[in-house]
């Protein structure tokens, strides 16, 4: 199962597309990018859905359904596991013009949003998990996840 690192802003989109298999530990994704407009940006993990319903159900066990359990199920470990899926811890390093801005481990779980997009001429549908929201100034950036 792959993911796409997505960085978006309110006014313009910057797509950093780096597919890889999240089931394998210690992988590193790196990218350089230029910010031309100061603004709030969101980095996210996108999990591209498979085509068949059976495959999607299997993926959902990993990704999680997202949401909040009702009061009747808030202590049910199976419901919590279905909502959260498998937690993923990512190490994020962000550098602007040679200055280290972010160097932290961030854990996320559960689908938080859905996203449709085109990739290499194909329409894709994905579940997303937010990594970090951050305000970025103009400059040349390097990110490592």
Attribute tags:
145 residues; mainly beta; five-stranded antiparallel sheet; four-stranded antiparallel sheet; 2 helices
Structure description:
- This protein is mainly beta.
- It has one domain (3-144): Jelly Rolls, CATH 2.60.120.
- Helices cover 13% and strands 50% of the residues.
- It contains two helices and nine strands, in the order ββββααβββββ.
How is this structure best summarized?
The chain has 145 residues and is mainly β.
The number of domains is 1
- Structural class by secondary-structure content: mainly beta
What's the Cα radius of gyration?
16 Å
Number of continuous helical runs: 2
Main sheet makeup: 5 strands, antiparallel
Question: What shape does the CA trace take?
Answer: globular
Stretches where pLDDT is under 50 for at least 5 consecutive residues are none
- Total count of strands: 9
CATH topology name, in short, is: Jelly Rolls
- Widest beta sheet: strand line-up: 2-1-4-8-7
In helices, the fraction of residues equals 10-25%
Query: What is the average per-residue confidence, as pLDDT, rounded to a whole number?
Result: 85
CATH class: Mainly Beta
CATH architecture: Sandwich
Could you give the order of the helices and strands?
EEEEHHEEEEE
Give the distance, in angstroms, between the N- and C-terminal Cα atoms: 17 Å
Give the strand content.
Answer: over 45%
Secondary-structure blueprint of this entry?
Blueprint: E1 3-9, E2 13-15, E3 30-35, E4 39-48, H1 53-63, H2 77-84, E5 88-96, E6 99-108, E7 113-119, E8 122-136, E9 139-144
Antiparallel strand pairs: 1-2, 1-4, 3-9, 4-8, 5-6, 5-9, 7-8
């Amino acid at each position: 199962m792959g993911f796409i690192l997505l960085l978006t802003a309110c006014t313009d989109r910057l797509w950093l597309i780096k597919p890889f298999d999240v089931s394998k530990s210690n992988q590193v994704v790196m990218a350089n990018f230029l910010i031309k407009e100061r603004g709030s940006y969101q980095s996210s993990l996108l999990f591209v859905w498979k085509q068949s319903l059976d495959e999607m159900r299997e993926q959902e066990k990993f990704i999680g359904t997202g949401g909040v359990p009702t009061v009747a199920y808030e202590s049910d470990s199976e419901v919590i596991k279905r909502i959260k899926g498998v937690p993923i811890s990512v190490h994020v390093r962000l550098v602007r013009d040679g200055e280290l801005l972010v160097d932290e481990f961030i854990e996320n779980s559960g689908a938080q949003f859905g996203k449709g997009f085109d990739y290499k001429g194909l329409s894709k549908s994905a579940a997303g998990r937010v990594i970090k929201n951050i305000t970025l100034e103009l400059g040349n950036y390097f990110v490592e996840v």
